[in-house]
């Protein structure tokens, strides 16, 4: 049986712009675009996990707003349950550490990126 992987993603926005992150070449889902975030650890709420992951990955703080979407996507390596939240930066500039690239993309142009498949329902919601 495939393992269930519980993941949170931060849709960090500033007006009409969304902060998008590209996975590294050597990771699972190489070079796919995703929302910064990661796996929820034992005992964490989704919000705790999101704050921790963003601090670890981009060295900045976020405030978490509404939940956008919860999706389940079956990959060859497991079943990802992805929950996304609208978030805002609290002041510090995001820094590039784990990702290949991070960039601000206008809402209207989100479909131009090659997203991790689990993210597509959230992209629909954000752009609708
Ligand atoms: N952070 C994040 N992960 C996503 C998204 N969409 C999606 O399918 N994923 C997948 C990729 C990973 O398999 C998993 C998140 O794991 P992670 O971010 O903690 O770990 P990782 O890159 O080190 O992953 P891995 O190499 O251990 O698989 O969820 C998304 O929008 N954001």
TrEMBL record:
It is an enzyme of class 3 (hydrolase). Residues 3-127 form the Nudix hydrolase domain. GO terms for biological process: DNA repair; DNA replication. Pfam families: NUDIX. Its EC number is 3.6.1.55. Its cofactor is Mg(2+). It catalyses: 8-oxo-dGTP + H2O = 8-oxo-dGMP + diphosphate + H(+). InterPro entries: MutT-like (IPR047127), Nudix_hydrolase (IPR020476), NUDIX_hydrolase-like_dom_sf (IPR015797), NUDIX_hydrolase_dom (IPR000086). It comes from the Bacteria. Coiled coil: none annotated. Keywords: DNA damage, DNA repair, DNA replication, Hydrolase, Magnesium, Metal-binding, Mutator protein. GO terms for molecular function: 8-oxo-7,8-dihydrodeoxyguanosine triphosphate pyrophosphatase activity; 8-oxo-7,8-dihydroguanosine triphosphate pyrophosphatase activity; 8-oxo-dGDP phosphatase activity; 8-oxo-GDP phosphatase activity; metal ion binding. PANTHER family: 8-OXO-DGTP DIPHOSPHATASE, NUDIX HYDROLASE FAMILY PROTEIN. Belongs to the Nudix hydrolase family. This is 8-oxo-dGTP diphosphatase. The lineage of its organism: Bacteria, Bacillati, Bacillota, Bacilli, Bacillales.
């Amino acid at each position: 049986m495939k393992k269930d992987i519980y993941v949170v993603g931060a849709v960090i926005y500033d007006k009409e712009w969304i902060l998008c992150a590209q996975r590294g070449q050597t990771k699972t889902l190489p070079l796919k675009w995703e929302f910064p975030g990661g796996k929820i650890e034992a005992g964490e709420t989704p919000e705790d996990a999101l704050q921790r992951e963003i601090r670890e990955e981009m060295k900045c703080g976020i405030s978490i707003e509404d939940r956008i979407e919860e999706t389940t996507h079956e990959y060859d390596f497991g079943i990802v349950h992805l929950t996304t939240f609208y978030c805002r930066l609290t002041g510090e500039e995001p820094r590039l550490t784990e990702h290949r690239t991070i960039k601000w993309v206008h809402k209207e142009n989100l479909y131009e990126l090659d997203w991790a498949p689990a993210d597509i329902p959230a992209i629909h919601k954000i752009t609708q």
